[in-house]
Amino acid sequence: MVDARSADGDGGPDSAAVSCSTLPHGLFPSYPTNGFTGIVLKDAPARRLFLASQRTLRHTSVVGGYRTHTMRLNCARISLGALAAMGLMALSAGAAPINGTVNWTGTVDATPTTIDFYLKTLGDMTFSINLPTTGSFSDMTQGDMGTIKPLNAAANPPGTFPGGPVLDWVTFSDGISLDLASLNAAPASLCSASVTANCGLVAGSPVIFNQIGPNVSAAFNGGGTARLTADAATAGDSPFTLGVTTQFANTTIAALATQLATTGHIVDSYSVTATATAGAVPEPGTTSAMLGGLLVLAGLVTRRARRNQ
User: Fold this and answer.
1) Sequence-ordered alpha helix ranges (H) in the chain
2) pLDDT (tens digit per residue) in 204-238
3) Are 66 and 6 within 8 A, CB to CB?
4) I need a surface site. Which of 93, 99, 185, 309 has the fewest CB within 10 A?
5) If DSSP codes are grouped into helix, strand and coil, which group holds residue 30?
6) Which residues have a Cβ under 8 Å from the Cβ of 212 and sit 6 or more positions away?
7) Are residues 155 and 271 in the same domain?
8) Model confidence over 79-126: pLDDT tens digits?
């Protein structure tokens, strides 16, 4: 039996609960759902596909304000309908990759082995959104808050991290996370009195320093995967790249080197621009081929069921 209830006024069910004692080897295990037993399909396209595979309605009644349709099905059609619906749900799930650009600012505290990001107090690991934001990030506005984890030389050296990505390295208020997987290579030369371009203050650090007139710039780049924070951490299909920059006004690289050696810290404001690129989604031909295969399977199952009957 299948019971389908409609509360949205379209005359069609909002969910379908399926139960069939003869499904092979418990292919679709039953579990309680709103007083019924079976598989519940909440996705609208999947629900329509499932119900379209069933036989004609046998009875209609109204129970507790819901329109209740009761149908008699054979198990082959239940199996086929559920398989097709689940396939459609899987296709829909992979069709919303993350893309766009986001900017944020804060304060950075760098030591010879760590980089801490914060907004007001060292250790708060927060930042503030800067406009513009585009694409998947466009629902955030100026001043929205997010969190960012610190980096350290042991776990996050230049190149791909040996221990794997820093999961949820950045978490935005709109429910998107960035998993940082790599940083740029360390500069080839250490800074000195004669080397003040594309150099590093600490051996093995990815931070690149440049003396630009009376000011000094420091920057590093990274990359990884953008995903919804609620999703499981996987390789994902939305890679991102970012650039972190800091500008030190009216100083020299030599002065910064002295400060680092004396206090163990260099502190200044920083800004980040990150861009996520939507990964590949199934080609129309691939999707059509998958659904076509389900239709062929439908014909085979129906023919076999009729012969058995």
Assistant:
1) 44-52, 75-93, 253-263, 284-308
2) 999 999 999 999 999 999 999 999 998 877 645 79
3) yes
4) 309
5) coil
6) none
7) yes
8) 555 555 555 544 444 446 899 999 999 999 999 999 999 999 999 999
Q: 77: closest CA among 55, 48, 49?
A: 55
Q: Are residues 51 and 104 in the same domain?
A: no
Tracing tokens 């940082």 back to the chain, one arrives at 180
Q: How far apart are CA 141 and CA 136, in angstroms?
A: 12
DSSP code at position 4: E
Task: Tell me the C-alpha distance between 167 and 229, whole Å.
Answer: 10
- Residues 107, 231: one domain? yes
What pTM was computed for the model? 0.63
Contact 40, 17 (CB under 8 A): yes
Contact present, 130 and 104 (Cβ < 8 Å): yes
Pair 19, 147 in one domain:
no
- Owning domain of residue 259: 100-276
d(CA 21, CA 93): 30
Alpha-carbon span 158 to 183, nearest angstrom: 5
Cα dihedral sign for 18, 20, 25, 29? positive
Q: Are residues 200 and 234 in the same domain?
A: yes
